[in-house]
Design goal:
By secondary structure, the chain is an alpha/beta fold. It has a single domain, classed as Alpha-Beta Barrel (TIM Barrel), CATH 3.20.20. Strands 1-2-4-5-6-7-8-9 form an eight-stranded parallel β-barrel, surrounded by eight helices. A hairpin with a 5-residue loop joins strand 2 and strand 3. Helix 5 packs across helix 6 and helix 9 crosses helix 10. The longest helix has 17 residues. The two termini are 29 Å apart. Bound molecules: SN-glycerol-3-phosphate and magnesium ion (MG). SN-glycerol-3-phosphate (G3P) binds next to strand 2.
C-alpha cells in the first residue's frame, strides 16, 4: 500500500461554512474553493444503505422527524438537505456514500470517510461502506484515477471491524481528546492517523503523536492564524468549514 499523503487542509463535511454540509453541492464547493480532500460523515439507513449525514436524527439538516437509522433510503433521498442552509441550495438531497464518492472521483479529490457509530449494526455499516468504496474505486477504471481514501471513526468497534473487513483501507482514530492509550489503540487497530479536536491539542501532544509515526489531523479550525500555529506544531491536516481561508494562509505560511 502506498504511504498515505494527507493535504494540509481538508474540507469539513464538504465545505460546511460555504454550502450545506454533507451534500454533493458541498463537495463541489470544496473543490471550487481549492480543497484537495473532503471529509464527510456516514450512517446507515433503515434498509442498510450508507448515507452521508452527520447527526443521528434528521431534524437539523432536513427538518424531517425521525432517525437516519429508522428511515429507508428512498425517504432519505426525497428529503431536502440544502434549504436549511440557504434557499439557493433547495433540492440538495442526503446523498448515498456511493454518490458522494462518485462526485469525489469526478472532481479528482481525496476523501476522509468518517463512519459514525451504528449500535448493533457495525458489521453492516462497515461491509456496505466498503462495498460502496470498492464500487466507486472500481467504476470507470482507466478513465479516472481512484481517489485517495481514509476511513476514520471515533468508534473502536468500527475500526476493528474495518481492519478485518477492509484491511486495505487506511484507518484513522477520531477522538475529541487523544485518549491515554492512543499509542496502543492506534497500533492495535492498525491506524495510520489520529484526528483530535483543536481545543484539546497541545504542542507537546502534537510532538508525541508525530514522533510515534502517526499522521495528525485536527478538527475544526476556521481561523487561519490558529491553523498556522498547528502547522508549526507539525500537524499534517486541518479540517475546516472554510477551506479557502486556510489555503490562503497555508500559501503565506510557505
Ligand atoms: O472527522 C473530523 C470531524 O468531522 C469529527 O467531528 O462531529 O464534525 O464529525 P464531527
Ligand atoms: Mg466528521
Amino acid at each position: 500500500m502506498a504511504p498515505l499523503c494527507l493535504p494540509p487542509v481538508i474540507g469539513h463535511r464538504g465545505a460546511a461554512g460555504r454550502a450545506p454540509e454533507n451534500t454533493l453541492a458541498g463537495i463541489r464547493r470544496a473543490a471550487r474553493l481549492g480543497a484537495a480532500w473532503v471529509e464527510f460523515d456516514v450512517r446507515l439507513s433503515a434498509d442498510g444503505t450508507p448515507v452521508v449525514i452527520h447527526d443521528p436524527t434528521l431534524k437539523r439538516t432536513t427538518g424531517a422527524p425521525g432517525r437516519v437509522s429508522t428511515t429507508p433510503m428512498e425517504t432519505l433521498a426525497s428529503l431536502d438537505a440544502g434549504a436549511w442552509f440557504d434557499p439557493q441550495f433547495a433540492g440538495e438531497t442526503v446523498p448515498s456514500l456511493e454518490a458522494a464518492l462518485g462526485c469525489v472521483r469526478e472532481l479528482g479529490l481525496g476523501a476522509n470517510v468518517e463512519l459514525k457509530p451504528a449500535p448493533g449494526r457495525t458489521a453492516a455499516l462497515v461491509e456496505s461502506s466498503s462495498r460502496a468504496i470498492a464500487r466507486a474505486v472500481g467504476a470507470g477504471r482507466g478513465r479516472l484515477a481512484a481517489p485517495p481514501l481514509l476511513l476514520s471513526s471515533a468508534s473502536r468497534v468500527i475500526l476493528d471491524a474495518a481492519r478485518r473487513i477492509a484491511p486495505e483501507l487506511p484507518r484513522g482514530l477520531v477522538a475529541r481528546r487523544a485518549p491515554r492509550d492512543w499509542r496502543s489503540a492506534a497500533a492495535r487497530l492498525g491506524c495510520v492517523s489520529l484526528h483530535v479536536s483543536a481545543s484539546s491539542l497541545t504542542h507537546a501532544g502534537a510532538r508525541e503523536i508525530k514522533s510515534a509515526g502517526l499522521r495528525l489531523a485536527v478538527f475544526t479550525v476556521n481561523d487561519p492564524k490558529r491553523a498556522s500555529v498547528f502547522w508549526g506544531w507539525g500537524v499534517d491536516s486541518i479540517f475546516s468549514d472554510v477551506p479557502e481561508l486556510l489555503l490562503a494562509a497555508r500559501r503565506a505560511y510557505g
